[in-house]
Amino acid sequence: MYGKAFAPEYRGSLEDLSVNASLEEVLAKAVEQRQRAELDGSALEMAHAELAVAEASRRLGRVADAERAWKASYRAARQAADLGAMAWAVWSGGTLARQRGALALARRWLAIAAGLAERGDDIVARGYSLAGLAETGRIQGDYQAVGELHEKLLAEARRRGEARHTVWALEGIAQMHRNSGSYDTALAMFEEAAEISGRADDARGHAWALRGIADVLSLRGETERALALLSEAEETCRRMKLVSALAYNHKMRGNVLFRAGRYAEAEECYRGALEEFREMAEPRGAALARLGLVKSRARLGHDRAGTAAELEDLHRTLGRIGLLHARRMVEEARAELGMPTDPTDPAEPAAATAARPAA
User: What is the residue range of the signal peptide feature (predicted)?
Assistant: First the structure.
């Protein structure tokens, strides 16, 4: 039913690059192709090369390089008058904005990318752009607004037999079920994503699916099995130099250890993940790692006044980013640690408004 996974963001002369190519390899070949395109005077090949530079740099956590490259890709695509290439460039910019925590900007760029892709009749770019909008809403916790879009994109991906996009949609919907407490449904969808990505040789999607399975198993008390799955996923992340995925893997390991009452080990994992997120300027991951770190330190005897102050700062930080689900996690942490919560938070209306994705 599903073919082998491919990476549509590697375009033109780079389209033969495997979805499992290490990011350093992608970056080296993209820079080489950029030099050739400059010598040949090919604006379209320049757009393709800069797009690959942008995506490899983003996934390696080199956000400044990624920012320069996606904008250069867009300028070259506009010079070539290629709407599809313009859409891919703006998609890359929107994805980078989401990674950096600029969620309103991410929605703006991704909506523009979807429009460009539709005008340029690039079905795949349109699907990726809409998927980006859906994911932005999902990580903010606005499931009602984006749940239907996730389901629609899943149906489209299944119909086309596109393994990589099917896996992405399954994992996104599974995450919403997991966060809503429907653990059996979440586990089944994560396991299907792992099966499809394994058959399609999509190592990145497989690593994320294993992380999701580990999360749900941990909630059921299956600590050692969860840790084994995270170790398997970590090998893939290291081999492919998936810097962001590796940091989230380490944060999840902290979650698993914390749930098992192994607070000192959890603290160490959270601290390492926090450093990784800060190094790549990823505020969402940094805030979530900080939350785990604060909870671990509290369990290890950190003073209550300091814990309360750190939780209040995290509540404000997550509110500014617009992560409603994550802010609820802070409130749950307060309750878990026996600390008072403030139900009349003036930041709530603004955050709720910010969480609505573009149509």
Answer: none
Q: What is the pLDDT of residue 350?
A: 36
What Å distances lie between residue 158 and 2, 169, 193, 207, 253, CA to CA? Answer: 8, 10, 12, 20, 31
Which residues, at least 6 apart from 303, have a Cβ–Cβ distance to it below 8 Å? none
In SS3 terms, 109-134 reads as: HHHHHHHHHHHCCCHHHHHHHHHHHH
| Residues with Cβ within 8 Å of residue 140, at least 6 apart in sequence | 103, 322, 323, 324, 325, 354, 355, 357
Q: Give yes or no for a contact between 209 and 193, defined as CB atoms under 8 angstroms apart.
A: yes
Average pLDDT over all residues of the chain: 90
Cβ 249 vs Cβ 234: under 8 Å: yes
Most distant CA pair in the chain: distance in Å?
66
Token pair 């671990």 is found at 296
pLDDT on residue 338: 86
Q: Rounded CA gap, 163 and 180, in Å?
A: 26
Give the other-Cβ count within 10 Å of 161's Cβ. Answer: 12
